[in-house]
Amino acid sequence: VIQCYIAPVYRDKKISGITLVFHDITKLRKLEQMRADFVANASHELRTPLTVIKGYVETLLNGALDDRQVSEKFVTVIDEEADRLKRLVDELLTLSQLESNRQEAEEPVLVLGIITLVAEEMRQRFQEKQIALELNLPGVVPQVKANPDRVKQILVNLLDNALKYTPYGGRVTVGAEEEENFVRICVQDTGMGIPSEDLPRIFERFYRVDKARSRQMGGFGLGLSIVKHMVENMGGSIRVESTLNEGSTFWFTLPKYEAVG
Ligand code: ADP
């Protein structure tokens, strides 16, 4: 998109020429569009559980309250939808904090310890789905300069996705290795994979390959954009490779502590 300004150039009170100024506003338009889409998506996601809550409350007030069994069922749904709303608002808050405060409080962090801890905390959920959770870790890796809570959250989000999008009996592997001035951590699954046309967009806010499936599993499509912001705010980068019906691998890097001091 090109914006063009035209201004006459005067000499002796006569127009002697014109000045043309071209501005490429493609990026600006794209940003404006993204912001508008974000607000529309957020509003829609907030509205859906509210509509459900309102509907059930009205039915209760219109007489269903007298039936104890029905009431309990309705209140359970209301409770679940309220939880969904809370999770959405929490994720939106995290995202806005990450977007406005790009500087993290960082310290030397041992990623191997965090990986082991998160794996132990999530092991039961993997067992329930009969998915093998394997750690493929070297004896030592250098300390990274990072915020340990954020590193934990990144791993939880990536492992949560690996668990959600891998069918029963699959395998998820977490690895870590040193790579020049960084430590690279990978989370690999043998799950459903991501179509190549969707790959470039999965880190966008609210982007989901299969909206219905993600929603059913409680997702809003915000997890990976939160992960990307966290990684980048700590000076790292993230990438993904995926083959449909075979599996996906997410890699992220964090700067070595001694490299940045
Ligand atoms: P969601 O809450 O929907 O999981 P995310 O931002 O975490 O949101 O992920 C965005 C989308 O990327 C998901 O809806 C899913 O389609 C896809 N995705 C993420 N991780 C995986 C994975 N390990 N395997 C297959 N698809 C994935």
Automatic annotation (TrEMBL):
It is found in: Cell membrane; Membrane raft. Signal peptide: none annotated. Residues 41-258 form the Histidine kinase domain. This is histidine kinase. It comes from Formimonas warabiya. The lineage of its organism: Bacteria, Bacillati, Bacillota, Clostridia, Eubacteriales.
